[in-house]
Design brief:
The chain has helices at about 5-10, 15-40, 45-75. It is mainly alpha-helical. Helix 2 (about 15-40) runs antiparallel to helix 3. The longest helix is centred in the C-terminal third of the chain and has 34 residues, at about 45-75. The radius of gyration is 15 Å and the shape is elongated.
């Protein structure tokens, strides 16, 4: 799973960043839950996979937040 190219294009234009951040955090939470379930079932390979995916979504959200900072500052100046 990853952001679609249209989502990435929108983010680069400064559009829909807040909703994309929310989506990333939602994906992160869901994948973290799945990783926890896999750990509870002693399925370490699946746990590792979901943990890596969750981390990637969390990192993407952090990048988007940094991208949104100038957009937020500009919106406040208007």
């Amino acid at each position: 799973m990853t952001l679609a190219s249209v989502d990435i294009d929108a983010a680069c234009r400064g559009e829909r960043i807040e909703s994309l951040i929310t989506r990333c955090f939602d994906e992160h939470l869901e994948l973290s839950d799945l990783a926890g379930e896999a750990a509870d079932a002693d399925d370490l390979a699946t746990h590792d996979f979901y943990s890596q995916e969750a981390s990637a979504w969390r990192s993407t959200a952090q990048v988007l937040r940094r991208m949104a900072t100038p957009a937020r500052a500009h919106a406040g100046a208007a």
